[in-house]
Amino acid sequence: MQRKVDILLAEYGESHQNKLNKAVHWICVPLIMFSLLGLLYSIPFFGHRTYISNWAFVFVIFVILYYLRLSRSMFLGFTPVGLLLVYLNHELYLYLNESALALAKVSLLIFAVAWVGQFIGHHIEGKKPSFLKDVQFLLVGPAWLMHFVFERFNIKY
Prior knowledge:
By secondary structure, the chain is mostly helical. It has one domain (4-152). The chain contains six helices and no strands.
């Protein structure tokens, strides 16, 4: 019996065969993740924003739990990545003089450019993005990239 993670990664991989589209994904998926967390970080939170007191951190906790359901290795691999992306957004927020609006603007720009890149990659591929079929594939994209890293280091996922 095939595991759910294997099924999802295989299905995601079907629309990501072109080398240029794959390269675009290696750039754009992390940028989308970073910018999405920046947008979430920008939303007002209870009290003063800190590294763990913001909506991006809350979202990452739920994403980590999703990966735990898929695979322990994906959970262990994504946890430091997700926390690092929140931390980088926190540092960017501090660099921008604690301006949530400035962080939102920067994040929105990155988000838009990265999605344009994704759609160009899929145009080159000649296939629609997987998330148009199932929104769950928005979380499978980072796992798909991570599975290549795991394979490179012979880590079972």
